[in-house]
From TrEMBL:
Pfam families: HATPase_c, Reg_prop. InterPro entries: HATPase_C_sf, HATPase_dom, His_kinase_dom, Ig-like_fold, Reg_prop, WD40/YVTN_repeat-like_dom_sf. GO terms for molecular function: kinase activity. It comes from Chryseobacterium geocarposphaerae. This is Signal transduction histidine kinase/ligand-binding sensor domain-containing protein. Residues 787-1002 form the Histidine kinase domain. The chain crosses the membrane at residues 712-735. Keywords: Kinase, Membrane, Phosphoprotein, Transferase, Transmembrane, Transmembrane helix.
Length: 1004
């Protein structure tokens, strides 16, 4: 008896009395499992839950099971998991010592078990790996357990520890008494041994007993310990109740998780607790898998003695309770007190300014007095009230005005009262349609909703403004958020933001449940909690406001449904108050089956963390891939699966995908089957982009895979290159043949044209040369004529004037007559000589072209000129000597050279008395020098400088014919015609030398 009392005391000490209500999901062969015996459960590093059964293993992602079986093993019966989750090495043992390795989310047969051998041999004894309660063993089997720094060897009557570093073994003073499985388990690096005799649990670390714990649950013979070393979790099952066992700060503690009704303890063989999602996975030996969820919501129903738990209007009562229209007060634990309000309408309940509770009964108001703890009632007749509030000075009431009860014509009245009694009426404002809800907009205006319109009413002018025009909206509720925004809730038309007297419609959720919202409760983090007829929705107000500014932004509602802890998904609205915010922070919402209590700051939003695109079904055959999916063109249908480990409400998994990187590619939503189907793809590289929502703030993660569709041979690049090359080659030969054909034709034409062109070009070339020479000659002649005209004018004018003087003279004397005749003679003689020179120059221009290709002897030409001037020279006592080379033949124009030589010899003869004139020649290749030297009076230095300068710039220099005569000017002009030059030099002793530099070349 004493022991029982102690057991109950310790049980109460360690086990909380209250536990969370839970919801359970059942899985068996009817809905996904390969077999109904779930031997072990674990979770890999990627977030997938794995189940071992007697007909394969299954991977669970919260939505469906992916079954793996038909491995090349002796059996498909799998037992327990072991290994290391963090290192992505999870092994699964079969009953025939064969193993699977789960790595990178896929299982495969593996014989590499260096770190995790199933059996080890020590001192001729086989030790079986012990890593969970379900270790398969026969009676009398020895076990071993691995830790980071050492290993334990477990015999039936002894426990030995071996340190990996020192290799030292030590025996512990404990007796491991067991039938098939030892009574030891591990948490982290600590081994715990249950001593039934002393009713204690020993903590052993590195082979040493470090502490002792008195835990009645663990030492109770009725308790079953279910533990898993790979999960690092320990559970105790006792009297259909599951407890967790944790070791923290040197203390071993047990905590009650859940009590299961009508379930036999021995049926559970494996447990896994997912702390993140607050779920328990129970593996049964015969009934498959049970998933137990612990919700953050508490749903309170009326006591069994009461009618159904349908709630509408409620108001806060105290710090943590609400009171209903029935007068019943509820908190999270249920019914607290019953005020027993009678005949109250479910759709109206409120406090007045004094804290009295106002209810509606028929057409009358009942006011339950706070002073008498809501027992006394004051009745106000003929007030069909819909909504009520006070601004501290006046009362504002929204009333129904039934004009015709037969056809139920209902209008609305806004009544303003001067005091709390609702008797002293200040004003009434009438409007059409039945009223539903009103709220203070600002100091001078109210917003009033009806079954058809939304009005803005001025309290100063009593004017009514219709804010929705001809459109009709059934206004259910009007909520003002903390930042002053007004939100209008309608029946069937969704949620609106009132901004600048204009309604902006918010988007619906995927199932259109937001089309009929009941109310909005706003928490401290800026989230709206919106109750509907099908679930509770959460959304950041900032997202809605962003959508109001930019309609292209997305709005993602988070949905809570029955699996979160409600009795039913349908919440209730239509009353004046459809939800409450309590002083302790709890929110309370009425539903069709209970009152829902929750703390919005403690309710979690579960979003998936990662997605994996590694599976596809191609033409009904499953195909695994990484990053790149390779396909043939004969594929008719492709189903690409998007694997997401997520263990909460599937409505909150938002996945969208688009095919291609084009900005115009449209994002398509992915359904709950989580697959993206493609009917056909052309060859080439395609990309599939997938994004998934991972937070309330609208953040996404993105994944991209490449889909490579191989081309047919005639679509490949090399085929196109070869084909193009062949076409180019064919075109080349065709062009080459055509070119050769045309070349032959052209050659024939070219021969004909060439002969004609040559003749024509020769003619043109000659004409061009002639034209140039003629142009040059014409220019010289123009210049010469201009000079002659200028120089001949003076002597002719002088002769004319002299002759006129003779004719005009009256007295002639001999001396004067002689003088005049002498002047006329000299001028006439000068003019004659000048004219003769001009005639010779003109003859040269006429005839020199005819003999410029004649070869003749220079010596002979000089000799002819010598004979011409010998007589004149002899009269002057002068000798002409011809020392020109007799063998020298030249091509130089004979007429021109003859005129040049003539002028030069003539000058020498005129100015040489009793002297010699020597003519010599030198020859060097094509250049001939002809030197004419006299011993006459010599040329003045001014003349030499004048003729030298004139020779260098004969085109532009002014000719001084009258001053210097015609002869040497003619010589310079003639030399220019045969590209020759003359050098004037005064001899050292006496006379002048004329050196002609000539080019002896045919057609020069």
């Amino acid at each position: 008896m004493k022991n029982n009392i102690l057991f109950i005391f310790f049980l109460l000490l360690f086990i909380p009395i209250d536990s969370q209500k839970s919801s359970i999901q059942f899985y068996n062969t009817d809905n996904g499992l390969p077999q109904n015996s779930v031997k072990d459960i674990t979770k890999d590093k990627y977030g997938f839950i794995w189940l071992s059964t007697e007909n394969g293993i299954a991977r669970y992602d919260g939505n469906s099971f992916l079954v793996y079986k038909n491995f090349p093993l002796n059996t498909q019966r799998f037992l327990y998991f072991y290994g290391n989750v963090e290192k992505d090495s999870i092994f699964v043992k079969t009953e025939f010592k064969q193993n699977l390795l789960i790595h990178e989310k896929n299982p495969k047969v593996s014989n590499v078990l260096r770190n995790y051998p199933i059996f080890i041999l020590k001192n001729n004894t086989n030790y079986l790996l012990y890593c969970s309660n379900f270790t398969y063993a026969a009676t009398g089997t020895s076990f071993y357990m691995n830790f980071k720094e050492g290993r334990y060897y477990i015999h039936k009557n002894s426990l030995t520890y071996k340190d990996f570093n020192s290799k030292v073994e030590q025996n512990l003073d404990v007796k491991t008494i067991y039938e098939n499985v030892p009574r030891v388990f591990a948490i982290d690096e600590m081994l715990f041994y249950t001593d039934y005799q002393s009713k204690t649990v020993l903590g052993i670390k590195k082979g040493k007993i470090v502490n002792s714990h008195h835990i009645p649950l663990l030492t109770d013979p009725k308790s079953r310990i279910l533990w898993s070393q790979i999960n690092n979790q320990v559970f105790i099952v006792n009297n259909s109740t599951i407890y967790t066992c944790n070791y923290e700060n040197g203390q071993l503690k047990t905590t009650k998780l859940i009590r299961l009704n009508n379930v036999k303890d021995e049926n559970f063989v494996s447990i896994y607790y997912d702390k993140k999602y607050n779920k328990i996975y129970l593996g049964s030996s015969i009934n498959g898998l049970q998933v137990i969820s612990f919700p953050d919501f508490t749903c309170i129903k009326r006591p069994p003695s009461k009618p159904e738990s349908v709630f509408y209007s409620t108001i806060p009562y105290g710090n943590s309770s609400v009171i209903t229209t029935f007068g019943e007060i509820y908190n999270r634990n249920g019914l607290v007190e019953d005020k027993k309000f009678k005949d109250a309408s479910s759709y109206f309940l409120d406090y007045d300014a004094d804290g009295n509770i106002i209810t509606l009964s028929g057409n009358n108001l009942k006011v339950y007095q706070k002073s008498t703890f809501y027992k006394d009632i004051i009745t106000k007749k003929n007030l069909i009230i819909k909504d009520l509030f006070s601004d501290g000075q006046k009362y504002y009431a929204l009333l129904k005005d039934i004009r015709n009860e037969k056809v139920m014509v209902v209008n609305g009245i806004l009544a303003v009262y001067k005091d709390k009694s609702l008797q002293s009426l200040e004003k009434k404002i009438f409007f059409q349609n039945e009223p539903t809800k009103f709220i203070k907009f600002d100091r001078d205006h109210l917003l009033v909703g009806t079954v058809k319109n939304l009005y803005k009413i001025s309290l100063t002018t009593n004017k009514i403004y219709n804010l929705i025009g001809k459109q009709q909206l059934f206004i259910r509720n009007i909520i003002r958020s903390k930042d002053g925004n007004f939100w209008v809730l309608t029946l069937g038309k969704g949620l609106y933001l009132l901004k600048n007297n204009r309604l902006i419609k918010m988007p619906y959720d995927p199932d259109n449940n937001i089309s009929s919202p009941h109310t909005i409760l706003e928490d401290k983090n800026g989230f709206f909690w919106i109750s509907t007829n099908n679930g509770l929705y959460k959304i950041l107000e900032s997202q809605l406001l962003e959508y109001a500014e930019n309609k292209r932004s997305k709005v993602y509602y988070y949905r809570y449904s029955k699996d979160a802890g409600f009795n039913i998904n349908e919440f209730n609205g239509g009353s004046n108050i459809c939800g409450n915010i309590l002083e302790n922070g709890d929110f309370v919402l009425p539903s069709l089956n209970g009152l829902v209590f929750f703390n919005p700051l403690k309710v979690k939003s579960y979003y998936p963390e990662n997605l994996y695109i590694e599976r596809a079904v191609v033409n009904n055959k499953e195909q695994f891939f990484k990053n790149n999916l390779s396909l043939d063109q004969d594929v008719n249908r492709i189903d690409i699966f998007i694997d997401v480990p997520y263990y909460s409400n599937l409505d909150n998994v938002v996945i969208e995908a688009k095919l291609g990187d084009s900005p115009n590619a449209k994002w398509e939503p992915i359904g709950k089957d989580r697959k993206f189907s493609i009917s056909s793809l052309g060859y080439g590289n395609h990309s599939l982009m997938v994004k998934m929502l991972i937070s309330d703030e609208g953040k996404f993660i993105y994944k991209k895979i490449n889909i490579i569709v191989s081309p047919y041979f005639y679509q490949t690049l090399w085929f196109k290159i070869v084909t193009f090359s062949l076409l180019l080659l064919l075109l080349y030969f065709l062009v080459k043949w055509r070119i050769n054909f045309l070349k032959k034709k052209n050659q024939e034409l070219e021969k004909t044209v060439a002969s004609r062109t040559k003749s024509l070009s020769d003619t043109v070339e000659k004409l061009e040369i002639t034209k140039a020479k003629l142009h040059k000659e014409v220019e010289q002649q123009k210049k010469l004529i201009g000079t002659i005209t200028h120089d001949i004018t003076t002597p002719i004018k002088f002769i004319a004037l002299t002759a006129k003087e003779v004719l005009d003279a009256e007295n002639f004397n001999e001396q004067l007559t002689g003088k005049i005749l002498n002047s006329i003679y000299k001028s006439s003689d000068q003019l004659y000589n000048f004219t003769m020179t001009l005639k010779e120059y003109a003859d040269i221009y006429t005839h020199h072209r005819l003999d410029d290709s004649e070869l003749y002897s220079l010596h002979q030409l000089i000799e002819e000129k010598k004979i011409l001037f010998d007589e004149i020279a002899k009269n002057n006592g002068t000798v002409i000597i011809n020392n020109v080379d007799k063998n020298l033949s030249i091509w130089i124009s004979k007429n021109i050279l003859s005129a040049i030589v003539h002028n030069l010899i003539d000058n020498s003869v005129k100015y040489t008395k009793n002297g010699t004139i020597t003519i010599e020649s030198t020859n060097e290749d094509e250049h001939i020098s002809l030197l004419i030297t006299d011993t006459g009076i010599g040329m003045e230095q001014k003349k030499i400088e004048y003729y030298t300068r004139l020779q260098d710039n004969i085109e532009n220099e002014k000719l001084l014919l009258q001053k210097y005569g015609m002869g040497l000017h003619l010589v310079l002009q003639l030399l220019q015609m045969i590209d020759g030059k003359i050098i004037f030099e005064k001899n050292k002793l006496q006379g002048t030398s004329f050196k002609l530099i000539l080019i002896n070349k045919k057609n020069a």
